[in-house]
Amino acid sequence: MPSPGPRGTPGSLYLVWIVTGFYSLLYLPSQIPMRGEPDVIAQNLLAHEFVFRTSIINGI
User: Fold this and answer.
1) 28-39 b/e with 16+ CB inside 10 Å = b?
2) Is the pTM above the cut of 0.90?
3) pLDDT tens per residue across all 60 residues of the chain
């Protein structure tokens, strides 16, 4: 099977971009609610630390 070459790389990166976009727009807000009192928000971030960290990486 031949490699995708220079034409396949941008398409693959675009697909990754779409998947991470759906992750950040649909999944993350449902897992970490950011409304309410600051202490409740801090508890939510600590309870979902991995999800919060992946949202930071996704934003980079």
Assistant:
1) beeebeeeeeee
2) no
3) 566 667 778 888 888 888 888 888 888 888 888 888 999 889 988 998 998 888 888 777
DSSP assignment of 3-17 = --HHHHHHHHHHHHH
Sign for the pseudo-dihedral over CA of 34, 39, 45, 47: negative
Q: Which residues 6+ apart lie within 8 Å of 24 measured at CB? A: 55, 58, 59
Radius of gyration of the chain (CA): 16
